[in-house]
């Protein structure tokens, strides 16, 4: 990857054209990434004068037959802003040229060959991994550039320093003949060269990297004696499970002559010891004059490496110094653990003084316990987990996490998708964005996990949130247009489902970790998406690894939300790893190692004392002491130290760090340099190298350009403070310069531009870009970010009244999509009340209607009713005062409807006016919104809506009204309305106009399902609910409340059908969705189900009790249905626990309230009410010494059940009479009534009631018939995983047996 030379005016004496130079010719412009410098006789199966082997092209990492290679005759030419001068060579990944950079300097420029995702990934990884490695014995990297090409994927390249020299063996042996031993001068060159090579490799390894291709041509010695490690094209991050080696047919990466045994077997297993093995091969070649494998077939070479101990070079070349002879043998040990380390090599070369400098630890000293805890959590498979690493800034959280991820990737085959958050970053879903980048790279290589997903269209939804996924072929092939017309909330739901399934598929083969750093800067959209993935009934078996600053889990709202949600999730094992200060002993040891001195050195002791256990602070103090010969007496706080460090820098260097800090920590390199140059003078490469070497800046991961960032958050904070205090009035100018520069790039997100222009005092442009960012976030479905940005735009104050009004409307829509419906309602109200003339009356009416809907749907009845009263006069309506007036008005409306036929208006009628359409929609909003809190008013508005719709000429609104009327009749009249309701539904659905409207079809499916439900036809109800949900979700927008309501009713049907397993899945999902988008109506039913059948099936009584307490505490007080449902479920729980007395007392207290509800007129409600009264009376009668009064109450309740025109109610009455008869010892009556109840429950498919009744019947019958009934009951209990059938039966069918 790097260049051995360049800029030569021509061939020199002794140079063979197209071949290699004579040894000692340091002026030769050597080729790159190839073995051609090894001489023309490098044959693999034959021998030349040098005895060095040539590899067949398919095994040579440097060979290429790629047609994209640039031809020398086309020079010079431009590539981006660089001018190519001449080709220098070809490497395993791309071609290398001598080039002139835009600033006129001569550089080496390397272009990637091919544009496959894997090649691009490896190319970017190469630069990303090495950009942080700054060392005199490693080639210096400069710029990473991506040049767009019209109609193509573009061209990526990077630049590096251009060197002159010879490869390692040629430089060491110089004029020494191949068959001669090294003389004294040669041994000195070898000794010095090995020291430089060891220092360079130790730096590579210290940064968590492995070279994987050390060989003579990849280590240069310049004319000045500088040793430089080159060709890092096969470098891999040792913590990454390499995508290069996925599959059995993975390529062999490296050069076989120098490969370690473990690298021969599997390239991905090559760690730092593999590089030291290669050094051993190079050392052998220097000492022996030729490769120890010269003239041998490849298979034999590999066999010798794997099976035979190495031969000492002294056997071939007597006179080899013993210490080098033994070092060579030890480096070539077959077992990696037996090879010397960097420290060992330096000591054995007599340079132990360099060990402390070259082997600086990366803050892991003393973290063995935390690392072990973390690793144990990450390697667990088959379950969903979460572990958070927290601690103060500078205490090594990130270092610990990266170290453990290194280990588990390498040793435990963990797949980890890593990302981090930035404080100033404003992209949608920023906490997940970079982790999804990593996922996309993984899928590019193993896209079977994407192609096998059960709903491929959902991948398009995930790609809508994260466009980078469109680089995955399987996802790129999915048509994004399939999402058109879907509700934004539905698209986000599908995206979460898709992400969960993809992660599940990956985790089926290997442990998966989702590692997110700096979660204190997380955004709420990312948190909610994460929760949607992890907090489902069957989540992907992955581990969330998050790290954040100590205490921010309480002070940063998104992180606090995530913490609270994960803590409450029973299926997630949440763990916390605290990274505290190092102990005094550990601090002293780290300081001593960094300084290279003894532990009792006074400077070491003082550093350990001053640093307070912070590894980062210890490192900065040690750096300060090494630079200044000790520590002065000035204040040594970390901030003061960093600021003093900054103040000692040259002006341009200091300003560069400050500009990065003011920019939020990162900027494109060219942009940052240009900003600084305009104010403080030019920034040359030496300045950049110094700042990187002094750990003030580093090169960030960037897909398209070279990006600089501050080395650590503490550096950013100190530099930002220094800039604020040093430049004061200039700070606004710095922000303006950054904003202007970013604007010129044309690719910066609008939110970042808005921040800088606002800080610069440019209100107009700050507002402009804030609004643009808000709209962009809304399009990306980042609803919370959009709301935050719309609110920010309003707060800046740079917009006129008209724009402010419409911005409020946008804000309200974003809040509603984000699930903050109550807040949305208030903002819609504010927009409607705004004092400007830009909004039409129709717009204001619509905003008030939406405010009413959101207030009422979230249980804020009083606020909703107040807005409704303001809204109604705008459409020519009013709300009667008092219940009596409402009933009179209702009767009047019903009288007007008595003679109207429920038929659709003929097609082709006059178009509905805007006011009439709004009047109808306001009536509909009131009908639905008041249904559960004021049933009489809801009925009045329904009657108005129906009458207006029938006269409107609008077939779609008329169909909505007529279908709802059919449902209401079934609801209020029971079986008596069955035939008429069914006829209405059939007639409506036969209309061609209705079939053309997905919205109306979906709503009619809901009403038909509701009618089936209320008439106890549970299986048809289930099918209709599912059809309605599918239509509205997949084809409509703005209907998520309707979908949620249908989902809740579908869940209740599952309850009646006794499908307990499915019931739990749906209830957990609905609770999760309600956490994102509050819906107290839906949440109440979900908690009622969990607090009853779901948790009690597993005998989790305390969990059930907790859910019901939350239900009673949080359900809106005016929701009549929830008061009754919660009361009924609580008495059922008490019966399950055997607390019959408490159940009866609660039933008595609640019944007095329920009987006064208008809701009580509904036949279905009456059936459940009298069933509950009877069940509680029977449960207590079974324990009472005088059961007669309670049995009388139970029989009276049964009598009421028989009056309700529903088959379910009849079965409840039969079951009640059977229990009363059994308690009185009248077995034949009990058996007779039970048989009739069983027959009805079986016909209605009411699984739990049927199983409990059969169990009771079995006990009464005995014999074969009894055993048959018992077996059927037991089969149901077993299929539904009911742990305590006896208690379940006591809850559903109480009584029967006296228990006094």
From TrEMBL:
Q: Which PROSITE patterns match?
A: PROTEIN_KINASE_ATP, PROTEIN_KINASE_DOM, PROTEIN_KINASE_ST
SUPFAM superfamilies listed in its UniProt record: P-loop containing nucleoside triphosphate hydrolases (SSF52540), Protein kinase-like (PK-like) (SSF56112)
> What are the Protein kinase domain coordinates in residue numbering?
82-355
Taxonomy, top ranks, is:
Bacteria, Pseudomonadati, Myxococcota, Polyangia, Nannocystales
Quote the record's binding site residues for ATP: 110
Segments carrying the region annotation (Disordered) are 1-69
Instruction: Report the source organism.
Output: Nannocystis exedens
Q: What is this protein called?
A: Serine/threonine protein kinase
State the UniProt keywords alphabetically.
Answer: ATP-binding, Kinase, Nucleotide-binding, Serine/threonine-protein kinase, Transferase
Molecular function (GO) terms listed? adenylate cyclase activity; ATP binding; protein serine/threonine kinase activity
Entry's Gene Ontology cellular component terms: cytoplasm
Q: Which CDD domains did the record assign? A: STKc_PknB_like
Report the superkingdom from the record: Bacteria
State the InterPro entries in the record: AAA_16, Kinase-like_dom_sf, P-loop_NTPase, Prot_kinase_dom, Protein_kinase_ATP_BS, Ser/Thr_kinase_AS
Q: State the SMART domains in the record.
A: S_TKc
Keyword Transferase appears in the UniProt entry: yes
The answer to whether the entry has keyword Metal-binding is no
